[in-house]
């Protein structure tokens, strides 16, 4: 969930169910009478309509992918009808933790150094570090991380390459300008483009795929993914009852079926068989009331929902295998009307990260995932649109509205552990606990002390700076119902060590970890 700059009361969760049992799309007309040409809110909406008219309703994941990263007017990647300016910050659509306080990125940097030290790399720096960020946004988080880790020369001198996994060319350009300078050239490489960090001279490589990043035993990967998983496309499935087979016909000379039934011993009535069906995106026909478009209506007057979710009339290839891949959905399948959300892209990234850490000759490295979502339950009704710091209808203004869904941390954990036997997963823990254990309160106290000792600033200037810093960090750890401290969570993937060592921020202690060392089994 992108944090809204000025959260409305109750807007951090859907006010009423997004999905409810509906009829299938069988017989749904996708052709609009040619009285006059229909007007669409964006060029992408029109193209989506054309595509669906030709192929039929599409999975929600397809709709989300087109709206977020499609070439034709995608929110992050397109340029047709795109709004000018920045998606991030107070003037954009949402604001993220690194934009709120520099202390957030500093705590992430300290965590990376702490985990590196805990694995014994300080005394045996035999591997060069790959610093990888997935979905880097403006580049603010990486800038804060780099500023922090360079206070630890042993770690900083071990950095081989910084990799930024970014699908948006526009965002990659912004990141390059921040980290390398506007005048710094971009050099084409086999996997993307590269430049040189303006402060520390490390090589920074931009690529649109994590699989393109070299993976060998000579490097140690440290991966950060902040508010990345919530933007990945989801599939939605609903459990439905399936028709029972018709009673057998009577053969000549047989007793009537009713007499045969009375002769059989009575058995308990068996529950009706069920199966998973997929919720698909279809256009809303003019003059009709849309179904399953979400609790948040468009904030733009005169812009009704242009698309809606309908239930597939038969199983799709996704509904036949995705919900069956995990035992977590088994009991829900037995209850008609149950709805679940599944994100295959999240499983892919979790698996890819886990293999990089755990599948070498020596498991090494770590990953830190920070996002919002469910800790142990299956997400439902979590799709939301975000525009200008408000929750809006996700099925209008396609390409101009950010789309987001809760992260299923249990599914991410499952995918990581299934992908590699060489890793273990810690968390999720709430963001407030993680940041406080990392020392954010103490770091803020240091900043306040520095401001107070600044002889060049007036008393009112000092008071204003202190107030801003204090409000910012408290916002990150606020455990209230709409606070970031409780809604956002942190999850760590580290090399498997039989649970002998928890990473710092997740119950581990850096000093004890250093004393024990990565190979000490006592």
UniProtKB/TrEMBL annotation:
Entry EC no(s): 2.1.1.320
The entry's keywords: Methyltransferase, Mitochondrion, Transferase
One BP annotation, GO: methylation
InterPro entries, alphabetized: NDUFAF7, NDUFAF7_sf, SAM-dependent_MTases_sf
One Pfam family named in its UniProt record: Methyltransf_28
Gene Ontology cellular-component terms listed: mitochondrion
UniProt entry tagged with the keyword Methyltransferase: yes
Region (Disordered) location: 239-272
Keyword DNA-binding: no
GO MF assignments: protein-arginine omega-N symmetric methyltransferase activity
Chemical reaction(s) catalysed: L-arginyl-[protein] + 2 S-adenosyl-L-methionine = N(omega),N(omega)'-dimethyl-L-arginyl-[protein] + 2 S-adenosyl-L-homocysteine + 2 H(+)
Location(s) in or outside the cell: Mitochondrion
Gene3D superfamilies in the cross-refs: 3.40.50.12710
Family the entry assigns: Belongs to the NDUFAF7 family.
PANTHER family: PROTEIN ARGININE METHYLTRANSFERASE NDUFAF7, MITOCHONDRIAL
Its job: Arginine methyltransferase involved in the assembly or stability of mitochondrial NADH:ubiquinone oxidoreductase complex (complex I).
Protein name: Protein arginine methyltransferase NDUFAF7
């Amino acid at each position: 969930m992108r944090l809204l700059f000025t959260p409305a009361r109750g807007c951090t969760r859907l006010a009423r169910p997004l999905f409810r049992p509906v009829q299938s799309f069988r017989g749904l007309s996708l052709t609009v009478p040619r009285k006059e040409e229909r007007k669409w809110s964006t060029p992408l909406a029109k193209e989506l309509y054309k595509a669906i008219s030709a192929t039929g309703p599409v999975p929600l994941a397809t709709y989300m992918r087109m709206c977020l990263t499609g070439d034709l007017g995608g929110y992050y990647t397109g340029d047709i009808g795109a709004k000018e300016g920045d998606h991030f910050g107070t003037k954009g659509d949402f604001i993220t933790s690194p934009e709120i306080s520099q202390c957030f990125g500093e705590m992430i940097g300290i965590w990376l150094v702490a985990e590196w030290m805990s694995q014994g790399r300080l005394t045996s720096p035999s591997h060069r570090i790959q610093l990888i960020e997935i979905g880097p946004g403006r580049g603010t988080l990486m800038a804060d991380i780099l500023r922090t880790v360079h206070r630890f020369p042993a770690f900083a001198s071990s950095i081989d390459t910084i990799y930024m996994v970014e699908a948006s060319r526009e965002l990659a350009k912004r990141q390059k300008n921040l980290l390398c300078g506007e005048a710094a050239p971009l050099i084409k490489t086999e996997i993307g483009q590269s430049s040189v960090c303006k402060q520390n001279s490390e090589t920074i490589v931009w690529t649109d795929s994590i699989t393109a990043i070299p993976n060998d035993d000579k490097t140690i990967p440290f991966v950060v993914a902040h508010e990345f998983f919530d933007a990945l496309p989801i599939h939605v499935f609903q459990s439905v009852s399936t028709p029972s087979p018709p009673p057998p016909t009577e053969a000549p000379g047989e007793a009537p079926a009713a007499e045969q039934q009375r002769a059989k011993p009575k058995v308990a009535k068996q529950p009706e068989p069920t199966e998973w069906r997929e919720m698909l995106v279809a256009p809303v026909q003019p003059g009709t009331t849309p179904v399953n478009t979400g609790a948040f209506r468009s904030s733009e007057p005169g812009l009704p929902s242009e698309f809606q979710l309908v239930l597939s009339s038969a199983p799709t290839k996704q509904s036949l295998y995705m919900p069956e891949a995990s035992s977590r959905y088994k009991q829900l399948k037995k209850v008609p009307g149950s709805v679940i959300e599944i994100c295959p892209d999240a499983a892919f990234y979790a698996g890819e990260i886990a293999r990089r850490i755990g599948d070498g000759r020596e498991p090494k490295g770590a990953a830190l995932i920070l996002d919002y979502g469910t800790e142990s339950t299956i997400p439902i009704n979590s799709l939301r649109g975000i525009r200008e710091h408000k929750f809006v209808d996700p099925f209008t203004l396609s390409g101009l509205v950010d789309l987001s869904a809760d992260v299923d941390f249990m599914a991410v954990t499952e995918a990581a552990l299934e992908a590699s036997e060489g890793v273990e997963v810690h968390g999720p823990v709430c963001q407030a606990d993680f940041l406080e254990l990392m020392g954010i309160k103490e770091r803020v106290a240091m900043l306040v002390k520095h401001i107070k000792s600044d002889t060049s600033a007036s008393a009112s200037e000092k008071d204003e700076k202190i107030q801003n810093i204090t409000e910012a960090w408290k916002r990150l750890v606020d455990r209230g119902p709409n606070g970031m401290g409780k809604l956002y969570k942190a999850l760590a993937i580290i090399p498997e060590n039989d649970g002998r060592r928890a990473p710092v921020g997740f119950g581990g202690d850096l000093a004890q970890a250093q004393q024990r060392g990565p190979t000490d089994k006592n």
